[in-house]
Design a protein that fits this description.
Length: 478
């Protein structure tokens, strides 16, 4: 299949394979938009498609900024925010909230039918007409209907720590958070972390019970190979976070201070001393308070995401299948579940609260000092014109399956994607990437409906030839 890109945006066609070894075509297109002026517009410089996962810091040792755009299919749309939380009024506080909202316009309010007289020659009664006009005015004054897709709030607090105090009967206490004006919204500040003791830490190794030592086989399989630690425990949902500590680790290292998470869910129980101690003893693992909170990408090693890869056993490794039979394409959805929505179409609205500074162009500030920025997608539609070997032409829509908002850089990325069947019975000759506005789309639909109406009427009246000429004239500009 030949691929032609008739848009100003980077696009690529490649082959995908499903869990049944069926091949299909994939078309991916990426758009970069800027809101440096306060309005969402296409950026002068378009970023290329992301080909490999990118991290904020060291690979696999920091949170993920973006994942490769070259996945075959996402069942849902990921909405990601890589940014910074800013305190209201730019004043240092101990705690404040940030919010992400996404919605699309709903169907318009339905206006009542105008009143009628006794027949078409008679006007309706004045009282009925006045009542109808008042009702129309009331409905038109209502807010435009919307369909909420995401409404998510996170709580951000200043730095605090669990500290072990006392000599005779030592106990853990949680210090009150410090004040802060801003905080990067990364999983490094959410609950999580790891406990690791190096072979070179001789004093800690002496105090570490042998039951917690890694076996030679485990050390050989460790990512660090020859420099593998003597023991290594990871909080799998978020290995880069803070607050996670095991009792054996605290005892062996004589650690007396552990940083507490700074990004949490406002409706979840707090990570207090009691929860910290129970977690250290292995008695807590699934409480909502220990769920890593954030707006960013959920790493592939997250247990709930990793399991979607399917059964990768010895039989699969030695076999010739491309994917396990129980592989789920939902593994490519990288956002937290409450930020995965139905595929977007290009007319959605994104609202960010306390995710940009006060002086951001286009932002508004409410009476409590909260800064809100509203971003409206530009109402464009990407599609491919598929030219078959048979001569048939088909218009196939692309859907937005990835949205990445980066307020600190004032840009937003959209990744559009679609899949096409790959068969010998109906081979594709050329696939052309194109784009038009929603207005052009609606006008085209109206023109096509008018042409089809002419042809339909002709079929009923038998005047096919004349109507075909009329339809051709009407569709000459299509």
């Amino acid at each position: 299949m030949e691929f032609r890109n008739h848009t100003p945006f980077p696009a690529l066609a490649f082959e995908g394979i499903d869990q049944h070894n069926g091949a299909f075509h994939v078309i991916a297109l990426r758009q970069t938009l800027s809101f440096a002026t306060g309005k969402l517009e296409y950026a002068d410089e378009q970023a290329p498609l992301c080909e490999v996962d990118e991290f904020f810091g060291e690979m696999n040792a920091s949170s993920v900024r973006q994942e490769s755009d070259l996945c075959q299919y996402k069942p849902k749309c990921d909405v990601i925010v890589n940014g910074t939380a800013y305190a209201p009024r730019n004043q240092a506080v101990r705690r404040f909230d940030v919010r992400l909202q996404v919605y699309r316009p709903g169907p318009p309010h339905r206006l009542p039918e105008p009143p009628q007289g006794l027949n078409h020659r008679m006007s309706p009664p004045k009282d009925d007409l006045d009542k109808w006009q008042r009702e129309v005015s009331r409905i038109k004054a209502l807010p435009e209907p919307i369909i909420s897709m995401i409404d998510k709030t996170l709580s951000v607090c200043g730095e605090s720590r669990f500290v072990k105090q006392g000599m005779i009967f030592p106990s853990w206490v949680l210090f009150s958070p410090r004040t802060l004006k801003s905080l990067p919204l990364r999983y490094e500040y959410a609950f999580g972390g790891q406990c690791r003791i190096e072979l070179t830490d001789l004093e800690a190794v002496k105090r570490l019970p042998g039951a917690h030592w890694m076996t030679p086989e485990q050390r050989a399989q460790h990512p660090d190979k020859d420099s593998a630690p003597i023991t290594h425990s990871v909080y799998e949902p978020n290995h880069v976070g803070r607050g996670y500590a095991q009792k054996w680790y605290l005892t062996a290292t004589k650690c007396k201070s552990v940083p507490a998470p700074q990004i949490t869910y406002p409706d979840a129980p707090p990570v207090n001393v009691n929860l910290f101690e129970r977690m250290a003893q292995g008695k807590e693992s699934k409480t909502p308070a220990l769920s890593p909170a954030g707006f960013g990408i959920r790493a592939k090693v997250h247990p709930e995401r990793r399991v979607l890869a399917g059964t990768i056993d010895e039989a699969f490794i030695k076999g010739k299948e491309w994917l396990p039979k129980d592989f789920d394409f939902a593994i490519w959805n990288a956002a937290p579940p409450d930020q995965q929505i139905e595929h977007m179409t290009g007319d959605e609205i994104i609202i960010l609260t306390n995710l940009c500074p006060h002086d951001t162009p286009g932002a508004t500030v409410d009476g409590e000092g909260n800064v809100t920025l509203t971003l409206a997608l530009p109402k464009h539609e990407c599609f491919v014109l598929v030219r078959m070997e048979s001569g048939e032409m088909i218009q196939h829509l692309l859907s937005i399956d990835t949205v990445i908002v980066e307020p600190d850089d004032a840009n937003l990325s959209l990744v559009w994607r679609t899949t096409l069947p790959k068969t010998k019975e109906a081979p594709i000759r050329v696939c052309e990437a194109r784009m038009h506005t929603h207005e052009d789309r609606d006008r085209l639909k109206a023109d096509m409906a008018r042409i089809n109406g002419i042809l339909d009427q002709a079929r009923r009246t038998g005047q096919v030839a004349a109507s075909q000429r009329k339809a051709a004239e009407s569709g000459a500009a299509l």
